[in-house]
Design goal:
The chain contains nine helices and ten strands. It has 269 residues and is of the alpha+beta class. An eight-stranded mixed beta sheet has the order 3-4-5-6-7-10-9-8. Strands 1-2 form a two-stranded antiparallel ribbon. β9 and β10 form a beta hairpin. α1 crosses α8. The longest helix is centred in the N-terminal third of the chain and has 24 residues. It is globular, with a radius of gyration of 18 Å. It starts with 13 loop residues before the first strand and ends with a strand.
Length: 269
């Protein structure tokens, strides 16, 4: 993909508590996230072609985060919103998942809740409340992408299993900007929001429908949930075996929509 996107700079009408721009004009918001997604896609391509080492400037979550609880859960019956996505991905809903709940020293609730299964190659962000993270700014304050990576690496154990990550799931999405972009992606393509949908960059087909799907893929990648997922792949491209986002799947959920970022190995050397 070589086309350069230069959408107009959208005016900021207001800023919500997570510092996401909120626009009165949906088309401007769509263009903003599509452009942001193109930037993330380009950053990931650069990382996949680079010979540089993975990011190492982060601390360990054991330093400033404490584990409130670890437990074994299953998609069925514990996470019913994920039964259909798991079935679609040919992952057994009875697969045991190691769930970890993280707190900070001053937080009054769970800051991050993640579930992983190294044998199934799946990492699930169950909840993530960055606004509750009281860790002082600096290398000890870890973004979701780094917390998720460290939990995945701990579960995987071996170098070979690190490369087995197949998909990253964002469960029960509460982010208002992400939810608006998902709704716009469905609406613009005339898709039923009540069933699972799939978006991919695909080839260079000339049809308006193919172009619409590509734009939706980039817009979803540009959401905060998509951007943090790409950051994990960029920061640890080498250890993960140079994974790229092949497609983005969306499903409705009782507590909020579900996004699944399906990964594939890059052909980059």
């Amino acid at each position: 993909m070589t086309a350069t996107m230069n959408p107009p700079r959208p005016p900021l009408e207001s800023i919500n508590q997570r510092n996401f721009p909120r626009y009165l004009e949906p088309e401007l918001e769509w263009q903003h996230f599509k452009h942001r997604g193109f930037q993330r896609y380009t950053e990931l391509n650069t990382a996949l072609h680079a010979d540089s080492h993975d990011a190492s400037h982060f601390g360990s979550y054991h330093t400033d985060y404490r584990t409130a609880q670890t437990s074994i859960v299953h998609v069925h019956p514990d996470l019913p919103d994920l039964i259909t996505p798991f079935t679609h991905l040919n992952i057994n809903p009875q697969t045991p998942l190691l769930k970890t709940e993280l707190l900070t020293s001053l937080s009054k609730g769970i800051v991050h809740e993640t579930a992983v299964s190294a044998p199934a190659g799946v990492l699930i962000a169950l909840t993530s409340f960055a606004a509750l993270d009281t860790t002082p700014p600096g290398p000890r304050k870890l973004p979701w992408s780094e917390l998720a990576w460290q939990l995945w690496a701990g579960a995987a154990g071996s170098y070979a299993r690190l490369r087995g990550l197949r998909c990253i799931v964002r469960h029960a999405i509460s982010n208002p900007a992400t939810r608006r972009v998902i709704a716009m992606a469905h609406r613009r393509l005339g898709l039923d929001p009540g069933v699972g949908q799939q978006f991919a960059l695909g080839g260079a087909g000339p049809s308006e429908e193919e172009e619409g799907v590509r734009e939706a893929f980039l817009a979803l990648l540009g959401t905060d949930n998509g951007s943090s997922t790409v950051r994990l792949l960029v920061d640890h491209a080498g250890a993960l075996g140079k994974k790229r986002v092949e497609r983005v799947l969306t499903w409705p959920g009782e507590r909020g929509p579900v996004m699944v970022f399906v990964l594939s190995e890059s052909l980059c050397p």
